[in-house]
Amino acid sequence: MARVLDHLDKSILEVLNRNSRLSLSEIGKQVGISGPAVGERIKTLINTQVINSFGVNLNLRALGYSIEALVRIKPLSGQLRKVEKLISEGPRFMFCDRVTGEDCYIARLALRDIAELDDVMLPLHDCAETNTSIVKSSVIKPRIPPINIKGQAE
């Protein structure tokens, strides 16, 4: 069952989503409560597994990656585990989701240039069908979904 949060929890999550490095007192200023109160609420959000972890939002271009690609991957018969191993061990794969539908996986790659795409994809061609799209831009950056708030109708 989904945990229902109050408006302060929602506000704290929104602030953390924008910048998880802010001090508790700065978050408190933005949401209208004290820093220690923010700390307690964050601790509760972690303990109730609403927050799994904190991370960074990397500028891939600053790290030399000028291209991102989305790859749909459909393993050949009997090759599912081999494909999964190649993906999990491939350092250019930033994430991969197992999905329903015609394909089994959708992955996102970080590439220094287009020539790297062949090097990354070549091992997969013996055990899977792939369909690659180059990312031109991101319309929506990662964000939190709508959050149920106590006392509000859904």
TrEMBL record:
Residues 5-66 form the HTH asnC-type domain. It comes from Alteromonas gilva. InterPro entries: AsnC-type_HTH_dom, Dimeric_a/b-barrel, Tscrpt_reg_AsnC-like, Tscrpt_reg_AsnC/Lrp_C, WH-like_DNA-bd_sf, WH_DNA-bd_sf. It comes from the Bacteria. This is Lrp/AsnC family transcriptional regulator. It holds the Pfam family HTH_AsnC-type. Keywords: DNA-binding, Transcription, Transcription regulation.
